[in-house]
Amino acid sequence: MTTSNALRTALCQASQTELLTALCFELPADGTVPDWIKLIPAGEFQGFDQRAWINDQPDQVLAVSLDGRDKPLDWEHSTQLKIPKGEKAPAAGWIDQLESRNGEIWGHVSWNAAGRADVASGQYKYFSPVFDYEQATGRVVRFVSAGLTNRPNLLLTALNAQQSLNHSPPETTMELSEFLKLLAAAWQQPDTLTTDQALNHAKQLNTDLATARNAQQPSLSQYVPRADYDQVLNRATNAEQQLADNAKAERDQAIQAEVNDAIEAGKIAPASKDFYVRACNHEGGLDEFRKFIDGAPVIAGASGLDTKKPADTSTALNAEEQKIAELFGNSADDLQKYGG
Asked: Residue 265 to residues 200, 270, 277, 287, 291: CA-CA distances in angstroms?
């Protein structure tokens, strides 16, 4: 295996579980602009880098891919490469229909003027569909997009066209130095990244991934089910609220008692009760009220008039007392003199 192939293999192993890839198909050489194009071969197929994929569930691929949105057919996979950078990624056309034909995935293209002109004039010779696949099995799971291209990106694997289309377009690759610079930027490594360093880094990524997957499961004694946690949290919240309500009730009771005592002591007027209750409810208000009452003079002492009656007055009998007095032949003066 060459250094370049070894590097690509290591990168593939260090990639994520579900990955994007692209295959390269040749457009008609006579300038015909096809309405339907074959996007994914049926069954097993293999790329230049010896990776193999399998499209053995085309109906499932269609079910996942048909999400009600047209798929872009762009230039040079700009949807995947430029949009993440905030750059424009115009479409050459839109794949608005997908079909399974004998296990192959075909797509209908609604070309726009610019895309149709580039194909008809021979400006672009190939198109490269992009799809998701499972790394563990190589199974195609979803069609994503497609792009007109004359130089398939090294990271987007080109299909062995001779195997599927009975012709053999030349393989194109970017320079190794350019590729290493891209890797260095993606991995946040120095620009001087060498092939050996890239291989070692890719192997380390693969080792770290395996270590993470095989890490010891945490002890269940340190965790609780979410439902139990939510129940305990609700109980704690309710308990805190109950304590707050109890504290407020006790505070209100203490304020009422303090204000009533001040009224009884004649240090504040009964008409001012609501004012002092509101003042005591402010932060520190009850303590300030107590200090005020301790030094306040008596302004409304007892008058002694509660048990006194004006001179030359008598108490009128109510209806029941009057009836009883009449039954016993007593007058109001008798009851006043001898007691009711």
From this structure: 90, 11, 16, 18, 15
Cα separation, 152 vs 162, whole angstroms: 16
What token pair was written down for 167? 């012709």
Q: Which residues pair with residue 52 across a beta bridge?
A: 46
Crossing angle for the helix pair 176-187 and 195-213, to the nearest 10 degrees: 40
Q: How remote is the C-alpha of 182 from its chain's centroid?
A: 31
The answer to whether 23 and 128 are in contact (CB under 8 A) is: yes
User: Residue 38 and residue 21: Cα distance in Å, rounded?
Assistant: 16
pTM above 0.85, yes or no: no
First to last CA, the chain: 126
The tens-digit pLDDT sequence of the chain (340 residues) is 444 444 544 444 444 333 444 467 778 878 888 999 998 889 987 765 567 788 999 999 998 888 888 999 998 888 888 888 888 889 989 999 999 999 999 999 999 999 899 888 888 888 888 888 888 888 888 888 888 888 654 333 333 333 333 333 434 445 677 778 888 888 888 888 888 888 888 888 888 777 776 665 666 666 778 888 888 888 888 888 888 888 888 888 888 898 898 888 888 888 888 988 888 888 888 888 888 888 888 876 666 555 566 665 555 556 676 677 677 676 666 666 665 5
Residue 102's nearest CA partner among 34, 39, 165, 41 is: 41
CA distance 117 to 75: 13
